[in-house]
Amino acid sequence: MEVKKFSNGFEYVEVKNSVASAKIALQGGHIFHYAHNKKEPILWLSDESVFEVGTAIRGGIPICWPSFGMNNSDLPQHGFARVSMWNLVCVNELNSNTTEVILNLKETQESLKLWDYKFDLELKITISDTLTLEMTTTNLDEKSFKLTQAFHSYFKISDITNISVNGLDSKLYFDALSSYNIRQNGDITFSAELDRVYQNVESPVVLKDTNAEVKLTSQGSSSVVVWNPWIEKCSRMSGMSNEAYKEFVCIETANAFEDFRTLGTRESHILKVTIS
Ligand code: BG6
User: Fold this and answer.
1) What is the pLDDT at residue 57?
2) Residue owning the nearest CA to atom 16 of ligand 1
3) With a 6 A CB cut-off, is 227 part of the ligand 1 pocket?
4) 65-74 pLDDT, tens per residue?
5) 59: which strand partners?
6) Are 63 and 123 in contact (CB under 8 A)?
7) Is 171 a pocket residue for ligand 1 (Cβ < 6 Å)?
8) Which pLDDT tens digit goes with each residue over 12-27?
9) Of 102, 165, 126, 163, the residue nearest 275 (C-alpha)
10) For the chain, domain boundaries
């Protein structure tokens, strides 16, 4: 393990063990590279992503917390964790194949102005022949809070028209484009903008590409967000080229929409995903 810096001072942890490699930015607790040694990287990272303090990395796995989307209109879209500076707690080499990186975020004067709660947020990222993210939210305040959150995973694909997302057949989803609740029929394929929150999901969800498959197995979550901006929205979005929508799909392990959690004093909730 090594803590490295881009020329502008932006810090990240680089992990290499005998089966996989990863890069994790301290801002956002944001993993922006993971690859099994014998396979292609699975996370998409925009060529136009700026690695600078205060701007979320476009790609990898942004941490949306304590609010997903605009669920809390007092907070920035997807909350503040993705642009906050996390503490590196420790890196544990469990064996030659497995490295655990633990990061932590606590309230600050700035976060209290945005969201008036004391909290402990711990993220354990396990880099092995699979990638696991386990995030524990603990309420350290006297009052309870409502939590919506997501691992906003951007997956690298051969082309958006080649892929399907399986495991969500017959699930109800909230369609963020029409604001209707609709029932999924079959696997998801892509031919236009798509922005959905699937509800009552039992994992796994599987991304199928021409020559590859990625499986997401989750715990502490029953909602999954599936998103691709397609042509027009992509051209309006920051940190990505006009053609970027062809190269990625987001499948986000979440507590979103009706799958919010309420945490009382000293209560914790664990959100976990294993990507294999
Ligand atoms: C997705 C949302 O999770 O994130 C989309 O469903 C949103 O509506 C997308 O456009 C990207 O958000 P942002 O804030 O990273 O540009």
Assistant:
1) 97
2) 237
3) yes
4) 999 998 888 8
5) 45
6) yes
7) no
8) 999 999 999 999 999 9
9) 126
10) 2-275
